[in-house]
Amino acid sequence: MLIRLLRRYLRPYARPLLAVTLFQFVATMATLYLPRLNADIIDRGIARGDTGLIVRLGGWMLLVSAIQLGCSIAAVRYAARTATGFGRDLRAAVFGHVTRFSAREVARFGAPSLITRNTNDVQQVQMLVLVAGTMLVTAPIMSIGGLVMALREDVGLSWLMVVSLPVVAVAISLITRRLVPLFRLQQTRIDTVNRVLREQIAGIRVVRAFVREPYETARFGTANAELTGTALRAGRLLASIFPLVMLVLNASSVAVLWFGAQRVEAGHLQVGALTAFLAYLTQALAAVMMATLTLMMVPRAAACAERITEVLDTRSSVVPPAEAVPPREPVTRPPLRGEVELRGVEFRYPGAAAPVLHDVTFRATAGTTTAVVGSTGAGKTTLLSLVPRLIDVTAGTVLVDGVDVRDLDPDTLWSRIGLVPQRPYLFTGTVASNLRHGRPDATDEDLWSALETAQARDFVAAMPDGLAAEIAQGGTNLSGGQRQRLAIARALVRRPAVYLFDDSFSALDLGTDARLRAALKPVTRDAAVLVVAQRVSTIVDADQIVVLEGGLVVGVGRHAELLDTCPTYAEIVASQRTEAATA
User: Fold this and answer.
1) Which string of DSSP letters, residue by residue, matches 110-121?
2) What's its membrane topology (predicted)?
3) Which CATH superfamily is domain 424-494 in?
């Protein structure tokens, strides 16, 4: 997975990677040349008292060092630019892919996991690219070059390198094999911590209302302890690598000095050559340490790449016509009559024993209001989600303006629909930026008109900055009713052909509800309006009421008609009248 991900998203950076390789190669060769110059200064300059030679060779060492420094800086610069560009592209790819997911795929991964995969996971792979770019070329050249140069200095001591390098390589490989599953588990633990933390922050009012702080603290403590335990196990293995390498390095250095001194005493080796041999041994083992640093990051990056690839390889259950199997020509300009029709619609969640909706058939024409009512769990929100293709039917057909929504170009479909979800969500920004979310070119007059219709003009005008008033993430600085009315105004600004209101009046008092419904009539007179509602008073004047029970349509008609012909509807009305009388 890691190789596949790197190959795909590093392809545009072939030239910077080539530059990194060239600069690293030159810098490494310069580094390997310095011990040889130092040996010549000792053996040919200091030993013979040749000051001129010492000065000339010292000058060469300064020049080679300058080249080595310049190339190293250039290599790091190109590697950093490549890594940051790679991370940017990968995050954009994951984000773009996730935005095409249907509700089914989002629920499968979970929002906390998707956030972790697009932030922490991408960062881990990006860091691997940076470290590999600066060390991956250097390490093999340095280790092989150090071995070759050491052999040139003295073959008699080469057995020390033949022993030390494989010992380090084998030990590191054994540790790395144990790290891979630990890092994979660690990323899963991070998902869990993020999920628990997100739930507790979002539901802080509920937690406090039910005095569940001790329980939630313990739940977070459990998730945190599991993450800490996994991180500690991985950390212990990582911490053992460097001491191991340093042990081999120091033992090898002592052995070189011990056996080298004997060869110098016997006249088989000069002091400068012994110094160069020791330097090359150190460089070779340092290269192994650099490779170790890269290898330390590989297991975690591999686990992260696997999680990222899982997201990128997940195909949305809602696909554009051109990407369907077999592909179809998308319809981009349907007639704008504002008509919705469901024919024998069924929807079943994956693995569910029974469908949520079964054989649902009705039609909502332009200029009419169709209400959908039913008990909790009857499938009302699921039904409404089928129209904009937030999810796709598992059987039957949903048509907008006579065209199957699966044949419509997604942008064309969504541009004709104004959706007010059950839980109105506002984005960080201003009132104006939220209202222009679906129509960026809307004027201030359009925004105020929509606010007037949505019964939101008064409280927006009362804000210090009016349309420029700041909105916190999720609209948490507003009441539930204010958020709901701004969400309705956002849909009105778009002027769509189809309005979908998913229980969008539940947070409004009866007076505001009545005024809002009266103001909506002239605005939506040319559009098809579908309303999911719990309060019968909200939909009593609807042109058509669809009654759902257990995913089945058990009644279709107007209010008065259904009271006589549909027991389920009559029971809903009676229960609400009883509650009102009791209150």
Assistant:
1) -HHHHHHIIIII
2) Multi-pass membrane protein
3) P-loop containing nucleotide triphosphate hydrolases (3.40.50.300)
> Whole-structure pTM over 0.85, yes or no?
no
Nearest-angstrom CA–CA distance, 346 and 382 = 10
What is the fold, at CATH topology level, of the domain defined by 2-313?
ABC transporter transmembrane region fold (1.20.1560)
Cα separation, 466 vs 470, in Å, equals 9
Residue 353, classified by CB atoms within 10 Å of its CB into exposed (0-12), middle (13-18) or buried (19+), is exposed
Span of 58-62, 83-87, 168-172, 230-234 with lowest mean pLDDT: 168-172
pLDDT one-digit tens code per residue, 37-90: 777 777 777 767 777 777 888 888 899 889 989 998 999 899 999 999 999 999
Two tokens, residue 375: 């008990």
Q: Which CATH architecture has domain 328-416+496-583?
A: 3-Layer(aba) Sandwich (3.40)
| Domain spans of the chain, in order of start | 2-313, 328-416+496-583, 424-494
DSSP, residue by residue, 49-89: T-HHHHHHHHHHHHHHHHHHHHHHHHHHHHHHHHHHHHHHH
CA distance 532 to 546: 10
Task: State how far the Cα of 111 lies from the Cα of 104, in Å rounded to an integer.
Answer: 12
